[in-house]
Amino acid sequence: MPAHYSLPVIHPPFELLKRSAPILHFIAASVILINGLHHFNIHHASKIICYCQLLIAADVYLLFFL
Length: 66
Hints:
This protein has 66 residues and is mainly alpha-helical. The chain is 73% helix and 0% strand. Helix 2 runs antiparallel to helix 3.
């Protein structure tokens, strides 16, 4: 339980990171999705890795949109 005389500490770089989190999640999901689709087009690549990357990209997109 915080004391009555404590003040919240606001760190400017951390606040900037919190404000830019949605666009960073969108960029990360897009890069993962592109990499997954690239693995899907390679004939000798493992399909498990492709599907896992597509699943992770979908999960991060859900985090972005919700």
